[in-house]
Amino acid sequence: MTVSVREVAALAKVSVGTVSNVMNRPEKVSPDTVERVQAAIRTLGFVRNDAARQLRAGRSRSIGLVVLDVGNPFFTDLARGAENRAAEAGLTVLLGNSDDDEERENAYLDLFEEQRVHGVLISPIGDAADRLARLRERGTPTVLLDRQSDNHNFSSVSVDDPAGGYTAARHLLEIGRRRLAFVGGPVSLQQVTDRLAGARLAVAEQPGATLEVIETAALSVLEGRAAGEALLARAATARPDAIFAANDLLAMGVLQALNMNGQVLVPGDIALIGYDDIAFASAAVVPLSSVRQPSELIGHTAVDLLLREATEGADAEHEQIVFQPELIVRASTGG
Amino acid sequence: MTVSVREVAALAKVSVGTVSNVMNRPEKVSPDTVERVQAAIRTLGFVRNDAARQLRAGRSRSIGLVVLDVGNPFFTDLARGAENRAAEAGLTVLLGNSDDDEERENAYLDLFEEQRVHGVLISPIGDAADRLARLRERGTPTVLLDRQSDNHNFSSVSVDDPAGGYTAARHLLEIGRRRLAFVGGPVSLQQVTDRLAGARLAVAEQPGATLEVIETAALSVLEGRAAGEALLARAATARPDAIFAANDLLAMGVLQALNMNGQVLVPGDIALIGYDDIAFASAAVVPLSSVRQPSELIGHTAVDLLLREATEGADAEHEQIVFQPELIVRASTGG
DNA sequence: GCAATCGATTAAAACGATTCAACGCCGTCC
DNA sequence: GGACGGCGTTGAATCGTTTTAATCGATTGC
């Protein structure tokens, strides 16, 4: 039924070792045997068995990537960057979507470990520190995405979230707003707390400014819409005059709620800024101000770091790379 | 260095066969040996080698999914549907992004074949018929996504694109527009030509109506913006009064060009409708009318079909499932 | 002319989990 | 008391590829 090197070898009248050599180092084989073997491969429709290769090699030729939300363009852009860089190195990226769920996160990590991947890139939920430490002890290098390790134990590629949060809030203050609200959550995500911390700092520096926190269960359009509708239910005077959303999906949800049932509150009554600068932000009902992260570059760089750790072995030094975010001003904050 | 069943067996003072049984059918092993073996697994930090399992099993526990564009929410929604259904069956989904590139498409198919996946779900570029036929002959069942096979040789899950195109164009005609333009491409995508064909039909039924075709190189926001800018460069009288874009990404690009450099042409001068009804469509500058496809359901159903083909073997009958699209009217067509 | 060298090829030993026929042990039945 | 059956366990074979040491011819060097 299934055709293996054995059959190929028989048809080409060579040994299985030679078939292997033809596929992996043809320069070590005489030209006419190469031709004969390749002909045999073609006529039999031989496809080599990756499981057997991996078993022998001890490692697979892929790296695992666990993201919080594949529906978020920030992560698909990041994945694209990682994939391109990995392809250059002859590796494949296995994409896992944890969807903010620790169980799914663990399931993917288990899977990747059983697959003996070259390494894991992960944007972890909460404090996965010991889980990841065990993973690495067993020989799978790991790089954190979009977040630094608390004790510098892991390599990481991230963006300066406190600075991004500061920049966003500062911008809202600079256009004259004082009653700020932060929409974001869950707080188990370090990205959320860091951005909030930065915003708090900016508000604290501005006398008379306040910051209200509206916590959401996820960083999704739906949650944003719910938050926006909650605000809408308030008396007009009780509403903030500016909103900083922890990411663009939330911001777009908020925008839908505030600007799409007849009324138009953004940007006149309420200024709005998001985070990530996804491609859809500029095409929103009111083009969305945002804080841009270099998503593809993050993915690209993370693979570089991972490959370095993988080659240097267990005692590789761990490097934290931090990119700076960039403020993008559009109509939603009066730009 | 690496710990295998052998070491576990030694520590637990049992044979390797028993260790395997503990992991795969614990009910066949006496309770105290189960406990002893599990203790050994824990203390040694044993993680089973998936390559070895697969080699023995002959098949991997995953299915391959090749999509045209991971950046398109339609496909990530579809992937989510597939993933959920696959998870219920204990399978993993490997997601490959062909990015409209036949070379990448082939690379992923090769990879999946070497991995001995349970089957392949693919939204193919152009006519991959013989490539896919070979794949299936070698034992990998295949289901087409978002497109039917020309000769009913493959199972498929798709949406009635001609009907969708007809519905979209008919809607534009019903709101009184007559000079229609279709923006889409490349024509190698059957989705594009089918939607266009449907639109042509609707226009032909309407005396005095015309349909101009503006071909794009891809179904992306960027290409849409380029098309929009080209229209903008024309004299106002030479512009169409309605545009049907082959998908929402294109439509949003067109919208950006037509409504965001000071002027506002949509929907007054030009009505605009997209296709897919991605989540961002309703949050666009002008909320976008669209033709909705049941993306998650497509992915879900495709996995069902695949599993059925896989169990029924080579002589399984091939089923074509076609869902009906749904017109969603929003502000961009005056809704 | 014999040894050394070189290139091409081979045969066999891995890799690690699963499976299956065989085996030992114990209690039951006649 | 011996045959039988059932349960739990074992050991070896197996999956398909890669790799290494060994082999075989043929050529070169002296």
Overview of this protein structure:
The structure is a homodimer of 335-residue chains. The first copy, chain A, has 335 residues and is α/β, with parallel strands linked by helices. Chain A folds into 3 domains: 5-48, 434 Repressor (Amino-terminal Domain), CATH 1.10.260; 60-158 and 295-323, 3-Layer(aba) Sandwich (Rossmann fold), CATH 3.40.50; 161-293 and 327-333, Response regulator (Rossmann fold), CATH 3.40.50.2300. Chain A has helices at 5-12, 16-24, 31-44, 50-57, 73-88, 102-114, 129-137, 161-174, 190-204, 221-233, 248-259, 295-312, and strands at 62-67, 92-97, 120-122, 142-145, 155-159, 179-184, 210-215, 242-245, 271-273, 290-292, 320-323, 326-328. In chain A, the strands form 3 sheets. The first copy, chain A, has a 6-stranded parallel beta sheet with strand order 2-1-3-4-5-11, with helices on both faces. A 4-stranded parallel beta sheet of chain A has the order 7-6-8-9. In chain A, α7 links the parallel β3 and β4. The longest helix of chain A is centred in the last third of the chain and has 18 residues, at 295-312. The first copy, chain A, is elongated. In chain A, 53% of the residues are buried. Chains A and B meet through α4, α5, β2, α6 and α11 of A and α4, α5, β2, α6 and α11 of B. Chain A binds a DNA duplex (30 and 30 nucleotides) through α2 and α4.
